[in-house]
Amino acid sequence: MNRIDPGTPTWLRAHNDRTAFRLLLEHGPLTRAQLGELSGMSKPTAAQMIARLERVELIHAVGEVSGGRGPNAVSYGVRTDRVTGVAISVLAGAIEAVVVDAADADHPVVEVPAATAGRTPESDVLGAVEAACRAAGVDVDSVGLVVAGVQAAFDDEGDELSFTDTLPGWPQVGSRRRLERALGRTVLIENDVNLAAMAERSGGVATTASSFVLLWIGDGLGVGIDLGGVVHRGAAGGAGEVGYLEVARSATAIAPTANDLTDLLGGPAVAHLLGAEEGTALAEVLPRLAGDAAALEAVADRVAYAVAPLLAVLDPAMIVLGGPTGRAGGTRLAELVGDRIDAAAHPKLVVRASGTGDQPVLLGARQLLVDRIRDRLEADITVAV
User: Fold this and answer.
1) pLDDT attached to residue 216
2) How big is the CA angle at 282 (ends 279 and 284), to the nearest 5 degrees?
3) Is there a single domain that holds both residue 249 and residue 328?
4) Mean pLDDT confidence for 131-140
5) Residues 215 and 187 in one domain
6) Residues 20 and 104 in one domain
7) In total, how many domains does the chain have?
8) Do 202 and 231 form a contact (C-beta atoms < 8 A)?
9) Predicted confidence (pLDDT) at residue 2 exceeds the cutoff of 60
């Protein structure tokens, strides 16, 4: 980005153009008059802003609006084909993907089966990018960024993965570099629960929380930590990997054979509480949870043990219960967990069920991409002045 000295006419034009661009992103297509009204600028100034943004191909005419007397007014919208991205969630047996653009428009989500053998970062991601673009009718050449959510800790500085049980074929070091080389695009790798926490902050139940912890409960466990709107990843990306944490001695009363929190609250444990035979997949029996009062009570007991160290260390304003089990337990599970937490020790704490639907990882990756795509496009505004 070219540097512009503050206070100069060039700086003011860039500031106005950036305001206009953001208004078009927020409101959709606008006429010159509408843009002038929303921005507080005169119609001639609004016309100049539109001309400059058109010149660098950030916006284009998209239609006409009837104004009654006189000719129809031209409406302008952001060009969403300049730079797109693909949000990806890498699961144990499949890869979900969706195209993302600057307008945050809805595009179809695709699910690509993971290879049964010989998996690599490239095989997981390249096919998903192409499938998402085909489903959205988007030119794959417009894709400039990819965000991949993985069930692992990721150290961005060292390009290093850890806790990679569900990522067969992904090397511990160098996965991002390999993907960028294969794709020829910028790739961001992020922990899946961190992305789910970003989704909770941007559009879930934690939009106004000063801080919160998202406890992901599914086949495994994970925690996303949001402190003042910033996800805390830790020095090496491993913050929140609580599944390996040893169970408190007092928890042996309800789970005498549990060694770690995954044993206490992971998929097999919850399936057992729901009366499933050993080896039954959690997904097969989880729909029973909401209607099983005894199982809800038992799961709440275990969640209370799982969050105790998080409360002691972080003292968050909110605990959000997410993941398949958190979603299945819903509001009732959140209420039961809240009842089990010492109100005197944590007087401001609230417990909520996740509010981001059944694809929170993709939703978080999508939000991250929207922000990055818009930043990249705004970098062209200085050229327009």
Assistant:
1) 99
2) 95
3) yes
4) 97
5) no
6) no
7) 3
8) no
9) no
Q: Are residues 121 and 153 in the same domain?
A: yes
| Alpha-carbon gap, residue 341 to 53, rounded angstroms | 54
pLDDT digits (tens, 9 = 90+) for 57-79: 999 999 888 766 667 889 999 99
Compute the half-sphere exposure of residue 80: CA atoms within 13 Å on the CB side of its CA. 20
| Measured distance CA(24)–CA(208) in Å, rounded | 25
Cα distance between residue 214 and residue 198, in whole Å? 10
Q: State pTM to two decimals.
A: 0.92
For residue 214, give the 3-state DSSP assignment: strand
What's the pLDDT band for 1 if we cut at 50, 70, 90?
very low
Tell me what percent of the residues of the chain surpass a pLDDT of 70: 96
Give the CATH number for residue 266: 3.30.420.40
Q: d(Cα 191, Cα 276) in Å, to the nearest integer? A: 30
* 203: Cα within 13 Å, side-chain hemisphere: 15
Do 323 and 220 lie in one domain? The reply is yes
Q: What are phi and psi of 77, to 5 degrees?
A: -135, 165
What whole-number distance in Å separates Cα of residue 88 and Cα of residue 147? 6
